[in-house]
Amino acid sequence: MEEVASLSGQLTDEEWLSELEGIGDERGYYQRLGKRHGALFLDESLDTLLVSFDTIETARAGSASGIPHGMLLAEMHGWSHLSILARELTFFRDEAVYRHFDRLVDEGFFEDFDRVIFYGAGPNGYAAAAFSVAAPGATVILVAPQATLDPGVAPWDDRYTALRRADFTNRYGYAPDMIEAAEQVVLFYDPTEELDAMHAALFRGPQVRKIRMRHGGARLGRELQDMRVISDVVTAAGQDRLDLVSIYRSLRKRRDYLPYLRNLLNRVHIEERHFLTALLCRNVSARKAHAPRFDHHLTLALRKLSAAGRELPPVRRKRSAARHLPELGEG
Known about the structure:
With about 325 residues, the protein is of the alpha/beta class. The protein has helices at about 1-5, 15-25, 55-60, 70-75, 95-105, 125-130, 175-180, 195-200, 220-225, 230-240, 245-250, 260-270, 275-285, 290-305; strands at about 30-35, 35-40, 50-55, 80-85, 115-120, 140-145, 185-190, 210. Strands 1-2-4-3-5-6-7-8 form an 8-stranded mixed sheet, sandwiched between helices. Helix 10 packs antiparallel against helix 11 and helix 12 packs antiparallel against helix 13 (about 275-285). The relative contact order is 0.08.
C-alpha cells in the first residue's frame, strides 16, 4: 500500500486499478465485474466487514493518498473491506454487479462476519442502500443518497438524465425497499437541497435515523469526510456504540470547519439578518486567528445594528464561545 500512496498522483486510472488488483491478489481478491465495475476484497478479520461503493474518481479523491476512503477506515481498525468500484457514474446498475452479490449471498459470505457496515454518498449511497439487502442485519450509513432514478417514481430529479435508460425496477432496484432488513440506517442530508431532501423522504422505517445537515450543500459527503465525521460514525458502528448522541457529538466539529461556517455566513448575510450575522462573525473571529471575511462582515453588521439603535450582548466568558454559535433551524 505504501507504493500506491506514494505514486497515486502520477498514476493513470488503469495503472491505479492495476495497483489495486495487486493488493487484492496479496490480501484477498480483485475481480473484474464486466467492463465497467470491479470488486476488491481485503481479508483481514471476521469481526467487521466494511462495504463501500465508489467511482474511480470519488475513490481517488477520497483521501490525499489516493486510496479509497473506505479502505483507509478499514485499515485503521483492522477490518475486512469490500470495495465495489465503477469506472464511471453507473449507479452500479449492471448485471455483473448483481451476479457478484448473488454469489456472495449464495456462499454465505456476509454471514461469516460479526457485523457488516455499508457506506456510500450520493449515487454511491444509493448503491450502499440497494445492495445492503444482501446482508440482513447490517448497519447502513448514507450521505444524500438517491432512492431511485426510475422516471415513474422520481421524475423530478433531472441531474442524471443520461442514466434514465438504466433499469431501476429489477433486482437491487428501489433503495428504500432494500434497507428493510437493515438493523439501522443513518442517513445524512441537507434539507435545503431540495432534490436530496425529496429522495431522503422516500427512505422510511423504524430503523432509519435521518440527520438533517443544514448548510452542508451539494458537497455534503466530502465535507463529512473532511471533518472526520464519517470516520467517527463508521468507527462507532464497528464498535456497536452508534447512537444519536455519538453522531451529534461528532457533528460539533462543524463549529470549527470553515466551509460550513462560510455557508452559514452566506445564509444570514443574504437574508440580511444582521444580529445573527454579528453573533456568528464575533464568535468565529474570537476563535480563529485568521478569519478576514468574518472580521469584515462583523464590522458591516455592527454598523447596521448601530444605525438601528441595537447592539450585541456582552460575551459570556464563563462558557465556551463555540456554544453560542447560532444553528439557524438545525433539526
